[in-house]
Structures are given as C-alpha cells and as structure tokens.
Amino acid sequence: MEKFGEKIGVTKSTISNIENGNRGVTEQMFKSICREFNVREEWLRDGIEPVYDLSEESGIEYIELLMNGVDSSFRDIILDIIKSYSELNDDNKKTVVQFIKSVMKKQQDRN
Q1: N or C: which end of the chain has fewer CB within 10 A?
Q2: How many Å separate Cα 27 from the centre of its chain?
C-alpha cells in the first residue's frame, strides 16, 4: 500500500481509508494511477477493455518501463529500433515486417 500510494502521491493511510470505504478515489488519484501504471481511465473506472493505452507513443513508454533494469546499452538499442519503426510510414513498416519474416523463415529452415 505504501509503495502504491507513493507512486500516485498519497499516503498509506489514504489508501487504507479507500480500501475500507471511508474515503473515495479523487479525480487526481484516477489520473495519477492511469499515468503511473499506463492504464486507461475507462478500464480503471468501468472495467472497459483494453486495460492499456495501445497508442504507439504509450506503447513505447510501456516498453521502457518493462526494460527498466536491463543492461542500458541493450535497452537503448531496442528502444531506438522501436522508436525508429514507429516513425515509419505504413508502407515502410510493411517492408520491415516482411524483411523480419524472411529472416525468421531462413532461421527456421536452417534449424
């Protein structure tokens, strides 16, 4: 509870009061939870899928969070690849995907 509260800027006792029904979640808390955990407000409030914001920009931020703790040089390479891909137009994205599939097929055929 304490770590969760810290992430959204409230105390452990505030979280406890919300859990016990003594206090409601404020608008600011909803926004903080969505921002810190990259979840959609519609999901948090009403359970409407999808859970996560699936925009490319948000996806890149989520991947950065997932890769926290990974060797920094490897993480930077992966993030640069993803960011560069997201900047391509649709035709170029298709070309990159076809290239990757071709390489993967050659690897499978070799094994």
Answers
A1: C
A2: 21
Q: Is the pLDDT of residue 54 over 70?
A: no
SS3 24: coil
Tokens coding 77: 């390479």
Please list the alpha-helical segments (H only) found in 20-69. 27-37, 41-46, 56-66
In the numeric block, which tokens belong to residue 3?
Answer: 């770590």
Integer Cα distance of 5 and 47 in angstroms: 21
Q: CA-CA distances (angstroms) from residue 78 to 3, 29, 37, 105?
A: 29, 32, 21, 22
Instruction: Count the Cβ atoms, other than its own, within 10 Å of residue 53.
Output: 16
Distance CA 80, CA 84 (A): 6
With contact defined as beta carbons under 8 Å apart, do 45 and 30 qualify? yes
* pLDDT digits 0-9 by tens, 68-83: 777 778 878 888 888 8
